[in-house]
Amino acid sequence: MGALNKESYVVLGCIGIRLFVSLLFPSLQHQLDQAVEFSTPMTSFKSLYEGIYLLKNHIQVYDGGVVHHPVLLVWFFSQIPSEFLIDLLYAFIDGIIGYQLIQITKYLRKCTIPCWVVGAVYALNPLVLLSCVSRSSIIFTNLFISSALLYVLQGNILITAACIAIAGYLSVYPTLLLIPLLNMVRTTNRKVLTLVISLLTWQILLLLSYNVNGHDWNFLSATYGELITFGKVFPNLGLWWYFFVEMFDAFIPFFKAVFNLFLFSFIIPLTLRFHKQSLYAFVLCIGWIVLMKPYPTLGDSGFFLSFIPFFSPVFGYLRYPIFSSLLLLHGILLSPIFYHLWIDLGSGNSNFFYAISLVYALGLASILADLTWALLRYEYDDGKPNYKTKLTQI
Amino acid sequence: MRSGPIATICCFILNVVLFAQATELNVTSSSINDHDTNPSLELLVDTDDKTNSITSNDIEDVRVDDINERENFNVITINDDIQYPFNEKLLIRPLPNNNLLASFAFEMESETFIPGHDESRSDQYRHFTVFPKAIEAMLGSTSTRQLHLRFTRGFWDAESWGRLPHDGFKSGGSGVELWAIIEAGSQKEAFDQWKTLANSLSGLFCASINFIESSRTTYPVKSFQPKSTEEGLPIFGGDETKNNKLYLLRASLANEPICTENLTPLLKLLPTRGKSGISSLLDGHKVFDSMWHSLSIDVTTHCDFNTQTCKYDMDAEVDMVIHVPYTLARNEHPIPRPTPNSELRCDLTKPYDIYQCFPLPESNSLSFEVSEIFGKPIRGSNLISNNPSKVCVDIGDNHENNSWEALLKVNGSHFGTDDNCFDLENKDDYDIYISSSNTNEIGRHSEKEEDVPLYVSRSLTGYGQDRGGLRTVFTNPTNDTIRAVYFESLPWFMRLYLSTMKLESDAAGAGLDLHDVITSVHYVTAIDHKRPTHLEYTIEIPAGTSLAITCQFDKALLQFAEYPPDANHGFEIESAVVTILKPWSYQIRTSTLLLSLSTPDFSMPYNVIIITSTVLGLIYGSLYNLLVKKLVTIEEADEIASQVGLKSLITRLKKKFI
């Protein structure tokens, strides 16, 4: 009973903190929505709001280069009458994600930490908190990813398939998570069923969008086309933007294909290598996508980092946790400063921000590599930790 | 800026071509050249002889070299009634602070033609008189029904100078502005014609108009509409299967420098070629040494539906504002030098010493001749139409108290008229003498005419290079509610958020809401690299009120090759156009804006490609190794290593030999 209480406190606290911050600092939303770390053209609330405005004024939403949000999301928001309800919605969704993380923890057999801690880590994670306050639309994708994970653990493949399809509908790349997800579904029949249902859901969503968008397919290129081909070159924490700013014209399409392939390249290997620890494969795949996606935000990485408590049984095997966390911290703290130096003060140039985005990428990559190592090491020890054995790879 | 060298080269080539054309094709100019170089040809002053020479040249132009025709031509020369549809007028109007507006207007008409006739057939010919052949060919090949071209530079100080000449309908925004009505079967076809038109004009006027592309072209829906009083523009159509429509296209190049290269081709289009009539005053050095100048060309098609014939009308205007004392000083000392001590105008009521003093304001008595302003007198009338060249000085009525005086000077004697308008009848050199004892008093025919109905100013807000705001301030100084259409075309790299549009107003307009003043909005969002943002709205500004409309935008980052060579100079954003509909029609353009975008490091392409690739390789390599390699203890690893590889080979070799 006490544990249950703690869990509900955590969820309520999660919602409360977000509402409190949103209401106490009303200008914070605007500030964060302008920060490159939390908003990209694909997820910013400003652009979403422009979409709502255009929709309400009967102007073609996707016949232009400003709105890149999925049709149904824009439509959904146009139905919300007040600002407070939007704040409430965002806080509530973050609460649900926190709750789902707690529920997922319960399915971990070897978890050494109390379930509520996972929720508390999520609730207090400043990256997630600020991302929520900035009203970045990435939160919806995160919600459907965590729901998919929870329901697959519960064995409800219908909802799982639908959720991952919705996440994919919202921002393409989570579709790749279907691969580690299928690995978590037991029998082949159920696997096929999951695949079919998610494809079907995806189709329905697209058809619905087609209808809502006034029988026009132009939203496909404005949302997915722009995302996959990196149509909007805006500075962000990812590895794509500066590469394509400086790339020679003739090679741009080639390298866009290569980067997309690169993003896809580790999904199957990770799933195969950790097919017995399928949940961890799923989390590592999330991490890989967050690292390599064209428009990453700190909301993405905050979501990924919230899964790290799941790795508590293997914490002992981590080789350089201090180094990784310092690298990440370095990147996150310096990026707004370097961006400010470049854009506002003019006393630094674009290389400053580029350098910090590299540090950030290396930080995330070192966390990923370290977790992978720890999992391999755990697998080697077969559940009986022996930290003294010195292992190497050949 | 980008287009500078290209424009220069093109101009050079074009000047050569034009020169060739002028000497070869249209003999009118050469005949007048003869007059100029050979002043002893007294006979040519006679009207009959003038007609004679021109007509014969025109017949040569049509290349009829039959002797019978030659005989006919003698008959034609006797005909006294032949006159060419050409009119020219110069209006000189003093402006406050010793400024002077000189407004040159030229009107000409083409011969009638039958629309839809295939002119490439061998038995067809076209007859050209005063209307420029180059323009007509261009209009014909691109199915253009109306063409409007503006070259403007400088700042029109509306608060001091009052209304723009021609109510602003003949001057453009800073840079080049072009709009045209094109007949086509579809919008795409219209755009293709438009591209052709722009390229032809670019060649003809030595300007970078060829840089007009889809990312700069808009299709205005409320502004730039042809005047409703016209009988409607004709659609030549062709056969019925083609469903032709008229398309209005507009584009502007804000960073285009306007110079002599653009004036010379304009003068070459006139039948007088700048050799006689008022156009002889136009000299690049003087026109472009002014505070504000504007060249404009408007061509419209008029059709007579009874006779099924059409003709083109062309208006060319050259307007400029000259600061008289400055220009007179330039005449004395072409290279500026410090004023000598004796000529310094010191304010002796304030402290002074032998080195420095406070200056007095400019003298308010002025007397000058137009030839001092333009460097040469008017070389006779236009000698081509029966309408004499006309010069008017707008200084109000001649009465005793009028401090202004304007006289025509010909052959050393001065003449005055009641309305201060002078007809130049013959081939003498004319000059206009203007003097004033008090330049602060400017007589006008009616005060009402000078009221500026609206002041508009637009500026950029914000400080970062990643976003900013646009702020347009409308000030209505009149006692009427003003109804106007605001037109704005912004480049795609300014991502405008229409949802952020807000209204601020002064005390007089307190309580107004955005929906109260903006009645209808036409908005086309930009597409990257393809289409500009196109915003038009109708706005009503209550009497005596000042309103500000603000809007936020994001600035895009471009690819490094898309930046101009001087990337940190910024990008010129073209003027917004405000067309006032009520209470009277008037057009204003705001000044251009300079938008600075964030720039990447231009020296970095290779470094970035290499460094990013290295990081990607590092990440890929480490993860790949982890996933693919086998996990073993160090002892096992050593053992395996001792069995394979170079080290083990050496040990084995050692064992064998030692």
Automatic annotation (TrEMBL), chain A:
It holds the Pfam family PIG-U. GO terms for biological process: attachment of GPI anchor to protein; GPI anchor biosynthetic process. Pathway: Glycolipid biosynthesis; glycosylphosphatidylinositol-anchor biosynthesis. It is a multi-pass membrane protein. Belongs to the PIGU family. PANTHER family: GPI TRANSAMIDASE COMPONENT PIG-U, PHOSPHATIDYLINOSITOL GLYCAN ANCHOR BIOSYNTHESIS CLASS U PROTEIN. This is GPI transamidase component GAB1. It comes from Naumovozyma castellii (Yeast).
From TrEMBL, chain B:
The chain crosses the membrane at residues 604-627. InterPro entries: PIG-T (IPR007245). The keyword Membrane applies. GO terms for cellular component: GPI-anchor transamidase complex. It holds the Pfam family Gpi16. GO terms for biological process: attachment of GPI anchor to protein. This is GPI transamidase component GPI16.
